[in-house]
Amino acid sequence: MPAGVAVAQADPFATCRSIVATADRAAAPPAGRTVAGADYVPGIDVRGNPVAPADLGGAPRLTLPDELVLPVTPDVFTFLGRVPPRGLEQLRANVGELRIRLSDGHTTFNGQPLGPTADADLLAACRQLLANTPPPR
Questions:
Q1: Is residue 45 included in any domain, yes or no?
Q2: Short-list 87, 89, 88, 108, CA closest to 99
Q3: Per-residue model confidence (pLDDT) at position 86
Q4: Alpha carbon of 136 to those of 4, 48, 122, 132: distances in Å?
Q5: Deepest in the core among 25, 49, 87, 110, taking most CB within 10 A?
Q6: Total domain count for the chain?
Q7: Residue 84 is part of which domain span?
Q8: pLDDT tens, residue by residue, 36-47
Q9: Domain for residue 57, yes or no?
């Protein structure tokens, strides 16, 4: 796997927080200009610059890779709406991989660009997920 690439584990919340923070940084106004009423983004100041967490004595700060790689492996029998036969309860199909470049939110599926509409849909889905989820403790 190329340097700077990480395979996302089972934490869609961390992935979505990264996607939303990246999009917010990209949408930030040029230095010296502010936007009134912007939503709070943890770890980002009002101008889109990263800031140190208040809890400096806590866990080490997570360094994000340049790109997230999310394997797309749905449960076959759940997808088919059927009860799996004994012994095949964990059968999953390897459909491909979704890659998300954190610098600009660009997404590809199996190497094919998804385009701005899919990028916007992914960002909207992440914002919805995070809005309906209590913050991590």
A1: yes
A2: 108
A3: 92
A4: 25, 21, 21, 12
A5: 25
A6: 1
A7: 5-29+38-51+64-131
A8: 555 677 777 777
A9: no
Q: For residues 21 and 43, what is the distance between their CA atoms, to the nearest angstrom?
A: 9
Q: What are the pLDDT digits (tens) for 78-133? A: 888 889 899 998 888 888 998 988 887 788 889 988 877 877 887 888 888 888 76
Q: What is the DSSP letter of 44?
A: B
The tokens for 36 are 């009134």
Query: How big is the chain, counted in residues?
Result: 137
Query: pTM score > 0.90 for this model?
Result: no
Tens of pLDDT, residues 55-77 = 656 566 667 788 888 888 888 88
Task: Look at residue 125 in the predicted model and tell me its pLDDT.
Answer: 83
For 26, 34, 65, 136, the CA distances from 103, given in Å and listed in that order, are: 8, 21, 10, 24
Q: Which two tokens stand for residue 22?
A: 């990246």
